Amino acid sequence: MADNAQLGAFCARRLICSSEDEMITPAQCRAARALLQLSQKQLADESGISLRSVQGFEAGERSLQGLAMSALEGVLAVRGIVMIADSKWIGVKFLVSHSPD
Question: Which helix (DSSP H) or strand (DSSP E) does residue 94 occupy?
């Protein structure tokens, strides 16, 4: 499970520094979960959002806003996931030497 202090700090930075175009895509979320071998339920539980919200977001049926998106991204970041999004690439990378608590 993600460290609450790390997750809180990540979410605070995200709310201050982010813009709409920096949010992760459903495909990035699915890819990050696959790299981490997390189920949708595990991601939902750790981020504090509903399973239906994670399922709907990953299916492209709904968007996540504000704190829900920050919480989801925070869980992934604390576990070593880095989002890639620039003019040529979109995806995720995983810091393999990272070891969560």
Answer: strand 90-94
CA distance linking residue 55 with residue 78, whole number of Å = 21
Cα–Cα dist 62/83, whole Å: 20
Of 69, 25, 17, 21, nearest to 43 by C-alpha is 69
Total residue length of the chain: 101
- 73 contacts 15 by C-beta, under 8 angstroms: no
Domain ranges (residues) in the chain: 4-94
Main-chain phi, psi angles of 26, to 5 degrees: -55, -40
Look up the pTM and report it: 0.74
* DSSP reduced 3-state for 96: coil
4-94: CATH number: 1.10.260.40
pLDDT at 67 over 90: yes
**Helical ranges in 1-101 per DSSP H:** 4-17, 26-36, 40-47, 51-58, 66-78
